[in-house]
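Chain A, query sequence.
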Amino acid sequence: MTFTKRHLLGIEPLHPVEITTLLDLADRYAEMGRGVAKHGHALDGLTQINMFFENSTRTQASFELAGKRLGADVMTMSMQTSSVKKGETLIDTALTLNAMHPDLLVVRHPHSGAVNLLAEKVNCAVLNAGDGRHEHPTQALLDALTIRRTKGRLHRLNIAICGDIAHSRVARSNILLLGKMENRVKLVGPPTLIPAGVSDWGVEVFEDMREGLAGADVVMMLRLQRERMDGGFIPSEREYYHRYGLDAAKLSCAKDDAIVMHPGPMNRGVEIDGTIADDINRSVIQEQVEMGVAVRMAAMELLAANLSAAREAAASGVTA
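Chain A, predicted structure.
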């Protein structure tokens, strides 16, 4: 297998071979998760610290479960009650944790680039669990695994990403990953929610939902991220749903076997009709949650292996 990175900070630095390597390992963990024996030993004796400066349900829970299933000692810090609230800087927090000699550090932060900065200050592997509007690499990887397992491949598919593109780190990571794997990516949304410079991303842009969904193999809906909005990006939620909410009429423009995705949490009746979200023949939203554990297990195993190799090489260098 080929995976050379020390950290998982984003999709952008990953080579397609590395993406495939990670997904292949995650696929095996997905099958193991459906069996009786769900635990492995790849992280035995290692320490995993989770630092979530933003609220999270799916990502935090799946990282915790992934670490425990592989044998790590897992500690999740409550950042709301940490010294950060007393004025401690991110770098000082990182140095404090680094002194405890963790092996894996999982970080979610509201500011873009914060996780990259932290990775420069610690001696362990760092995984980006979402930073501002920048990236959310493990979400894109779990989405890719879900698509590959459902469609049988992860290339030359017609994929529509719909909704709040401008504020979505999930969209950015998915655009990067799906582009690397030679898919046709279409962005669908109101002009106010399409980021500037999108023409340089190698994607097609549609303002009309039905045109954007035409011939789609995958329909990926996004949450309206009101916490990141500082102005009137949409007239009203009712109007937004009328034009951009996924319902049966709009979905009929996609292929008959198109799958529906959403990273969660969902706003039913705003981004997606509840009937579509719960349709077991079209929706793979629950499979996305399931694949999240498998992808995070694979990512941590690969990074831990690289960390171990680097430490052994450094020790040999010192001895020599």
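The radius of gyration is 20 Å. The chain has eleven helices and nine strands.
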